[in-house]
Amino acid sequence: MTTSATPNTPAHEHGGDHDVHRPATAAPTHAEAEDASHQVDPHAIPDVAIVDVTKRFDDVTAVDAMSLSVASGAFYSFLGPSGCGKTTTLRMIAGFEQPTSGEIYLAGEPVAGVPPYRRNVNTVFQHYALFPHMNVSQNVGYGLRQKKASKADEARRVGEALELVRLSGYEQRRTWELSGGQQQRVALARALVNHPTVLLLDEPLGALDRKLRHEMQIELKQLQREVGITFIYVTHDQEEALTMSDVIVVMRDGRIQQQGHPEDLYERPVNRFVAGFVGTSNFLAAKVVGIDAATGTATAETESGLRMIGRITDPDARLAAGDEVTVAIRPEAPVVEGLEAAAPIAAADGTTRVTGQIKQGTYLGDMIEYQIDTELAGSLVVRRQNVRAAAGPRAFGPGEAVTLTWNDEANLVLGT
Ligand SMILES: Nc1ncnc2c1ncn2[C@@H]1O[C@H](COP(=O)(O)OP(=O)(O)OP(=O)(O)O)[C@@H](O)[C@H]1O
Ligand SMILES: [Mg+2]
To answer: Can you give the CATH number for the domain in which 352 is found?
Structure first.
């Protein structure tokens, strides 16, 4: 998002009162909000609590016995494939749908039967639906006029909200005179002007092109830090979730699969679905041959006889010898070497090694992706940074014989 495009910007003076940056209740400072997103007070009342909520539409169970606590001031993302219940969950929080069973609490209060306009949440939708007969200021001030705010109050708060989304100077523009990204920022300002405790965003960047999306992602995250409001952001784009979130909630078929910081999900996905949905993985079917409870590791063996020691990522997994598991290996983990490296045949302690043959290399700009046929591990995808340093590793051609070596740490042992 460009910040220089502010034609005719009047020098925007602030009074001492700067309240568009703050939710109406006890307002966290910027620093506190940052803290809140990293170390959540387990005794604090969550902004949103979903307790055993199920939502059925006739014979479709859109949300299935879901429980979730959303910490104040954090950036949450609901991530999952189409139809997994993301929008339905958001609509129940906003009050547009009622749970079939279970309870939703906002700031500790049950909200069953409370209509949307009486909940201190605002929603930004994918199709931002600005009012075409109003200019930018009038669009942003709409909610305030509904609440009978004074003209002076409206002008001040609209000015602050527009500054927040970097659209000062655009007050008089008509909506059709704005780019897609600018329209989306007007929609954001319109939601923020009401000082919601929680802002719900349903794929708000879906209509934008890739580059603008990425810019808006960074802007949105920055904005969230600035205002300290809790964001719940719905997306089926893992990159978007990884870029912005303090907590990603991965959903499938109306159920939460895992929630955690992006790094946790990437490093310790608890099952095959999460490992495949957050980033990409090579999946090897294997059987447990031994468990080391002290280190939380398992030894697993593929049908072709490859033995791997790996981390059991799901703390609730109760694995035993003989169980079928999947071992996931991220494509950046294996180091590929030509045979001239004269690698020893046996893998060093703490590593896994296989030999193979390059099937194909695909140039991806910043990376090369190899498909490598191996005898023991089948076809593996390996990615390598495209380093241009003179001493960097050389590229490999089709048919070349190579070894692949990776740390056992990179073997993620997942229940199937
Ligand atoms: N009003 C409705 N009536 C009947 N079924 C519905 C209704 N709303 C949603 N569903 C169904 O509930 C399930 C979950 O839908 P939902 O819109 O929550 O998915 P989503 O995760 O937001 O998907 P997408 O990424 O495609 O937006 C789907 O099977 C959908 O068809
Ligand atoms: Mg949806």
So the answer is: 2.40.50.140
Ligand nearest to the CA of 81: 1
Length of the chain: 416
Sheet holding 401-407, edge to edge: 335-338, 401-407, 351-363, 367-374, 378-385
**Mind listing the pLDDT tens digit for each residue in 280-289?**
999 999 999 9
Query: How close is the Cα of 56 to the center of ligand 1, in Å?
Result: 10
What is the domain count for the chain?
Answer: 3
Orientation of helix 30-38 relative to helix 210-227, angle to 10° = 110
CATH code of residue 309: 2.30.30.140
The protein residue with its alpha carbon nearest to ligand 1, atom 29, reads: 83
Residues in the ligand 1 pocket, defined by CB under 6 Å: 57, 60, 62, 80, 82-88, 236
For ligand 1, pick from 50, 79, 82, 88 the residue to mutate: most ligand atoms within 8 Å of CB: 88
Residues 239 and 353 in one domain: no
Cβ(3)–Cβ(166) under 8 Å? yes
Ligand 1: atom nearest CA of 58 is 4
Question: pLDDT of 117-148, one tens digit each?
Answer: 899 999 988 776 889 999 999 999 998 998 89
Residue 25 in domain: yes
Give the global pTM. Answer: 0.82
153 neighbors 141 (Cβ within 8 angstroms): no
Instruction: Say which range, 3-17, 212-226, 298-312, 363-377, has the weakest mean pLDDT.
Output: 3-17
Percentage of the chain modeled with pLDDT above 90: 65
Same domain for 162 and 207, yes or no, is yes
For residues 161 and 116, membership in a common domain is answered with yes
Residue 403's beta-bridge partner residues? 337, 355
- Same domain? For 308 and 354 the reply is no
Comparing 165 with 55, which gets the higher pLDDT? 55
Closest-CA residue, ligand 1 atom 7, reads 57
